[in-house]
Specification:
The protein has 706 residues and is mainly beta. The protein has 1 helix and 64 strands.
Length: 706
Amino acid sequence: MLRWLAVGTVFAAIGGEEALRRSLTGSTGSTGSAPGSTATSLADTGGDGGTEHGGPDRGGPDRGPGVPPAPGDGAEGAAPEPDQGGRRWSDPAGWGGRVPGPQSAVRITDRVLLDTDAAVGSLLVEPGGSLTFAADRGVTLSSAGNVEVRGTLALAPGDTAVHTLRFPSVDEKRFQGDGMKVVDTDVGLWVTGAGYLRLDGAAKTAWVRAAGELRAGATTVSLAAPPAGWRAGDELAVTPTGPPDEDGFSARYDLAVVRSVSGSTVTLEAPLRYAHPRVALGGGVTVGAEVLNLTRSVRVEGSAEGRAHVHLTSSRQADVRHAVLRWVGPRTDTRESWKGPDGSAAVTTPVLGRYGLHFHMLGDATRGTVVEGVVVRDAGNHAYVPHASHGITFRSCISHDTWEDAYWWDGPPDTRTPQQPSDDIVYESCVASRTVLEPNPRAYRLTGFNLGAGTGGKALDCVAVGVQGANGASGFEWPENGEGVWTFRRCLAHNNLQDGIFVWLNARQHHVVTEFAAYHNGGWGIEHGAYLNDFDYTASVLYGNAGGGVALHSLGREKGTVFDGLLIDGAGQSDFAVSTARHELAGEAVTFSRSRFTGYRRAGLAFRATPDGQPDDVLVLDCEFGGNELWLDPEAGPPKNILLRRAGRAEAIQVRRAEDGGAAQPQWNASSTLLASFAAQSRPVQLPALRFEDAAAPTGRVGGDS
């Protein structure tokens, strides 16, 4: 039975956020307030005998530091300094005589400084109110229910302190999902109205590559650059780098704890379990394992038994930097089960709209927002979701051990409806690490980065590693019905269970993928479809992928599809460097030019278009081969056109099936006819010369240099 208390002019009960809001307009009463105060807000659950009080309302026209301006004040977008001058949470006088307890539904309308660990039933920060964690000490606020921010919430610890917002008792089975409004059962952090959220932890380098091979049993790691801000006790994830013929190649992560840091050398608390070789891909690329730092001094978390979420619909820009969001992204059971490693387990599905960090349909209000140095880990749902929210930059962020596509926004409801766009989204130096879905055979098309619809998108210097999944799973995906034209440069995909890149667009716009590298993936470096599209792949390296370098499902549209200046090295892992597959529609020719194919077991290019589809139409111009050049699958139909001009030659060769006449080419399972000339001028092979950064892009605190 709920017990109601009247304090000041406000009544509330623990019956939920909606009940709390309703009670704020209910009957009036009176109580003794702290001397000199004008308490106008509090609520009590009665469960522990403690009352919840709001203190003096200082949120008038002169709001003071740390309180966001109201709409129309002319200062939207400015980041206020965290307010350390409010009344102290630990002072009973500010609460009318009793500090809130674990059953209290707290409503704040004034300025409050959290100077001690605290537990509440729920928390509402009203417009004009602020809750700031004390910068000079480590403090934790635990909430059994929602935390809603309409005013200001600031966690900005000093360099040695840790601030934690914890949701320790989330019941994922009660989640409803969807919608713009706060839902009482969907426990998490909500930033609404014109609320301002500041998560501003101590800056540190998000990730650095190993300088050399890491051996199993090693207790020290030599990094390619000195990491800023790394400390004893930090938790690290060391990514897998081994070849795809190694058991568990996509899941050989080491989780390690830092004992000490000296320059570029990190000493670990315990030895590494796995070897993590440094891999020479060619094209100027030699890379070691990414060493990801998963620790931050600002923490927002559920628990291993119940995942929370962060949901932003505020018209005011948030500042989210150097925070770790752990145990977020709830899931719910279905009626199905699967046989997991520990016996039968429920098949789960994600809760719609309840993600790690979710900017929800904010349009241009988010333009200029920077999210940097953030970690989302141990998440049951998408990590970063800028849904119909434009102009957000994600810099040096990490998703680790996340279910569902890590970097994503809502797709269309069906294959006939275009995806709602998010414009000017930037992923810079971000990592998608160990993206999963269980059971894995159902993880069709799982991806680390879902490059959806919108204009002005950029993916720069990003890494996708350890993505699990079934057919079509990948590090980076261009999905159908989500055509976004992305600037895509210097990205790397390795040790994913399936592909490095998966394209399934029926695109009408021109797309360029350049300076890309894919190595040690279990499928293809690039799997390209679906029906017709217009892509240029340039200056890229595909090394040691088990399927091969390129799987080609589609012919081109208008300008055609071009692979130019590639180094495709099978490293003994694949039969072919390139293989064609079914072409659903007839289109323009696909061109492979100025490239080198090597390290394969059978042939550089295999032509395997199925007889029930459209025939191959492929030009192979000015390319070098490290073995047998071509192979025509005897099960394929007759090609429309296969033309080969070897590097350094003026003449071209028309390739046909063996039974169609011409000079026999047994090693190709084909015949050929020499053409005296070819219209396109011969050009030298142009091998890529790539340079990838060995550390994440530098980041800084709010108001500091990045």
